[in-house]
Amino acid sequence: VADTTLAVASPLPPLSTPRPARLARARSADTDAVAALFGALHRHNAALDARFALADGWRALLDAHFARTHASDAALWLLAWDDGDGDGDGAEPVGLLLVEAHQDSPLFRERGWAELIALYVAPAYRGAGLAGRLIDAAADWAAARGFDRLQLYVTTTNEPARRFYHRRGLRPVQEIWRLDVTPRPDATQPTDPSHAPGADGCGAAVLESGHHHLAMEADRADDR
Ligand SMILES: CC(C)(COP(=O)(O)OP(=O)(O)OC[C@H]1O[C@@H](n2cnc3c(N)ncnc32)[C@H](O)[C@@H]1OP(=O)(O)O)[C@@H](O)C(=O)NCCC(=O)NCCS
Hints:
- With 224 residues, the chain is α+β, with helices and mostly antiparallel strands.
- The chain contains 5 helices and 6 strands, in the order E-E-H-H-E-E-E-H-E-H-H.
- It has a 6-stranded mixed beta sheet, sandwiched between helices.
- Mean pLDDT is 86; it is low at 1-11, 199-204, 208-213 and 218-224.
- The structure holds coenzyme A.
- Coenzyme A binds at residues 8, 10, 12-14, 41, 44, 119-121, 126-132, 152, 154, 158, 160-161, 163-164, 167.
């Protein structure tokens, strides 16, 4: 995505229209900007469901994943910037999108899709179509790489996000259902056998893929 600034035209602008943001692929120097928005997204998710809270060591894992993938053709890390009053100083990161090539288990005939892993817009910049521009960029990225769909997970109680996705033409195709269970105090959780390191040593998920790649990378880091 080129470093272009696109003003958003709308017949019904919000009461106070935020400055139009500039979209740009994240570069290696943008680690802090990415982490700030990624952290805010997951604080938002954890406020909806405490079980989605990030682990203590999330920042190091995110930094490593970002360093490895930000320039890769298999991932799109997109930042939205508010360039301020245009004097070049103090550009502020106000939106983040991460979409990655996803590969499901070889058990399935259709294994590949583009997975939306992160989408976040800072509160003051919402309602002006910024997430819409980010999703459009993700859909273009997916189509240009031969994918026939973009998929994501969204928390059931995240009404603004569900409404947003629905308006953008996305539809739910599967749900995660949960039964709370009381763990026995003396029990130890076994590791997921589908994530055991495969012959290639990279943790092939044979029967079932993980929630997303970042989760799988955390597993691998634990194995080291
Ligand atoms: C969900 C989220 C990304 C949407 O970001 P956003 O930039 O406000 O999204 P948009 O502005 O494109 O669309 C939001 C609303 O503004 C409206 N809108 C879009 N363009 C507009 C414009 N030019 N002028 C006025 N309103 C506009 C849309 O119709 C939409 O209305 P809806 O809520 O009834 O669907 C944002 O709320 C967010 O970051 N939430 C917290 C994190 C989160 O939940 N992420 C998704 C996790 S899966």
